[in-house]
Amino acid sequence: MGMLQVTEGWTTAMVRALPDDGNRYEVVDGELLVTPAPRLLHQEAVVQLLLAVRPYVDRHGLGCVLTSPADIEFDPRTLVQPDLFVAPLHAGRRPRDWREITQLFLAVEVLSPSTARADRTVKRRRYQRHAVPQYWLVDLDARLVERWRPEDDRPEIVSDTLLWHPDPTIPPLEIELPRFFSAVLDE
Hints:
Elements: E1 5-7, H1 12-16, E2 24-28, E3 31-35, H2 40-60, E4 64-67, E5 72-75, E6 78-80, E7 84-87, E8 106-110, H3 116-129, E9 134-139, E10 144-148, E11 156-158, E12 161-164, E13 173-176, H4 177-185
Parallel strand pairs: 8-9
Antiparallel strand pairs: 1-3, 2-3, 4-7, 5-6, 7-8, 9-10, 10-11, 12-13
């Protein structure tokens, strides 16, 4: 897998004009992030998370769950593509266009060798500044999740049960991480 490439001074309009060449292009505060297609295990982790998160979000009417590729634009110099994310409904319905998603309730990245630095630093800081309530970094090698909140200086490290409680009036979502990692890694 190729390495992450970083270039400064980019806008979302410039990123949208790039060719569809199999790479994933994001821009965070003008910094272009270019990553190759993800590994198969990465995609399996995204699918397993989708299978856990989407029924919960749908059952409780919390918004919509989507996966990348996506074009989530926070401002003219920030366009991100979280691996999985939960966004609010738009005018009481699912968004119909990426421009209708300007806030996230949850953003999730599955770490890869080529994305770990950007996911842990550049993107994490941007999600925190944009007040995304939770940002999960899924580490398949260490079999844990780093959970970040906007005010955190350090992540909460979760290796047993990952709880997500976006609304105090409903029970939390519980993801048993040992079971999750076993499913992803086909053990």
